[in-house]
UniProtKB/TrEMBL annotation:
<protein>
    <submittedName>
        <fullName>Cupin domain-containing protein</fullName>
    </submittedName>
</protein>
<dbReference type="InterPro" id="IPR011051">
    <property type="entry name" value="RmlC_Cupin_sf"/>
</dbReference>
Amino acid sequence: MSDPGPKPSVPFWHLHVGEDGVSHQTQCALTDYELKGVGPADPQWNDKMARGEATVVFTVQPVGWVGDWHENPAPQWIIVLSGRWWIESMDGTRIEQGPGEFSFGEDQGCTETDGKKGHKSGTIGDEPCCLMTVQLHVDPKREPCHLT
């Protein structure tokens, strides 16, 4: 095996609800990696999340799709497989993501403010955006980056 290099730090965005009841986005990073082999395979870096029940949902958002203000249906990992999309939180922060980028949507329980609740999102460009979501069957937390 070649040198595995330094312990990874993989960035992601966390859409969460602050104590003010407003959704915010915080740049976080997965950093709890352990170098470990799987069977006879060479060791690899693994950041194992808590075990629990989950539902996997694949979505394809058409060109020009816009999801007006809404909350995520459950705390969920959202991974962009193809295409591009944007997410805007109630505090006005807007991020854009493409293939291989991911976020954690945990904006359940927002307080409606000026007609806004949760987040808005939509596709970018001239191709659909294909997403994979892993919805966790857990209660949301109001703490940014608690998953790291």
